[in-house]
Amino acid sequence: MTRTSPDIRVAVSTVIFTLRPSPEGATLALPLVRRTRDPFEGLWALPGGWFDETEGLDAAASRTLAETTALAPSYLEQLYAFGDVDRSPTRVVSIVYWALLRQDQVDEQRAAHEADGTAPENVQWFAAEDLPRLAFDHNTIVDYALWRLRNKVGYARIAHGLLPDEFTLADLREVHESILGRKLDPANFRRQIEASGTLIPTERFRTGSHRPARLYRYDGAIELAARGPIPTPTDTDTTDRNEER
Amino acid sequence: MTRTSPDIRVAVSTVIFTLRPSPEGATLALPLVRRTRDPFEGLWALPGGWFDETEGLDAAASRTLAETTALAPSYLEQLYAFGDVDRSPTRVVSIVYWALLRQDQVDEQRAAHEADGTAPENVQWFAAEDLPRLAFDHNTIVDYALWRLRNKVGYARIAHGLLPDEFTLADLREVHESILGRKLDPANFRRQIEASGTLIPTERFRTGSHRPARLYRYDGAIELAARGPIPTPTDTDTTDRNEER
DNA sequence: ACAAAAGTGTTTGACATACACCCATGT
DNA sequence: ACATGGGTGTATGTCAAACACTTTTGT
């Protein structure tokens, strides 16, 4: 208790999920950063950085996320603190967050980069299920984040965090199917979502090659997930505690 | 990414739960330590300390727990990392764990202390629902740990972590009732537990003032709680990741 | 007209709740 | 014998899964 704090540095990393169009509907993807210095130089790693002394944990996660993607997350939650002795040559404790980004915002960002040629160097998006060997223990961290996402989508209304403001039930179902990796019954999915009371139907419809589908939007008055008794979201209003259930 | 780590210290704290006998069955209790130095001197705080440079997060939590109670936890899980800028006069990030202690072990420990007069100074057990004002943000932390415990007891088999090796279903039900704060139907409780398949019936019975009740013990081959795809419990075999559900 | 997706209705089974009832022991 | 908690049986409601069916559009 009375010993002074040894030389341990604190880092923040974030597992950032979004959906990419793919042959079979959509695929979870996340951005990685190629390391340009010694520990694990050349390998891909989760975006992150050191803490600024004047910012809280959530703020640091948001900042490093913005530095990588130039986007604000639609969902942000602390995942876990990793601090094994051997996870890095020097002693580093990483506070890891996970986040969701809206599909359309990522697309806009990507289009802008292609237009003005300011493609971010050393940042690349990978399919979440097909990652290379990552630096540090980051493969373990991504696996854990994926597990948490799949778990949480079953009981918390977070899937719309990957969609634009207005979406059809088929869109939302496709998100669930992409995350869970299996098909869902459209009829039962509709009833579950409607019963949850978290979606507001609009008067607009999406017209496609078949019968038009009603567009819905998320009811912002309802919290994304059940949280602890003392919410205390420090900065973003989309920040949440972990474990919900 | 390239800035160097500022002066942030990393601490570990643990919310340690056990059950105390009380008029209405049993009550959740936790040990607190009176602060003897400046930030919040005189107030009660969660047991904890700084990290040893050579130990992992889980090990540090176990160590500080042992320093406070001289006991090994029957369950240990990381709760959350707290790092608001204003939570301490100096910048401290606390990795907080929560733990369960077996009732009988705590009793033994207490009896030993009373016998040889080595009552630990500055450590005192408090009822979890009736705490004084604590140092730092520790009231918030305890509330969150209580929420997580109540949540988790509903879907994970952790309640036996508060009981001796052999116990009756009434004992186990009392634990659930104490944690949840409401009475449970004995018949339905029995069926739920039996259906979970986590308890092994013994041939022993507890004889009381009425019909003897069968003693059960926990099936150690079954994990306490569903965990992520990559378990990696670093030291204790009772260590678990947070949030399962 | 027909294909295909949107949306509705119905049946089934799993499971939690409520509660009536029987069992076995100490006093 | 009887009070008390241990333990079983049974009816009810909720909800998710499965799937047949109707509706509405584009071609």
From TrEMBL, chains A, B:
From what superkingdom does this record's organism come?
Bacteria
**InterPro entries to which the protein is assigned, alphabetical:** NUDIX_hydrolase-like_dom_sf, NUDIX_hydrolase_dom, WH-like_DNA-bd_sf, WH_DNA-bd_sf, WHD_NrtR
User: Which PROSITE patterns does the annotation name?
Assistant: NUDIX
Nudix hydrolase domain residues? 7-150
Q: What is the name listed in the Swiss-Prot or TrEMBL entry for this protein? A: NUDIX domain-containing protein
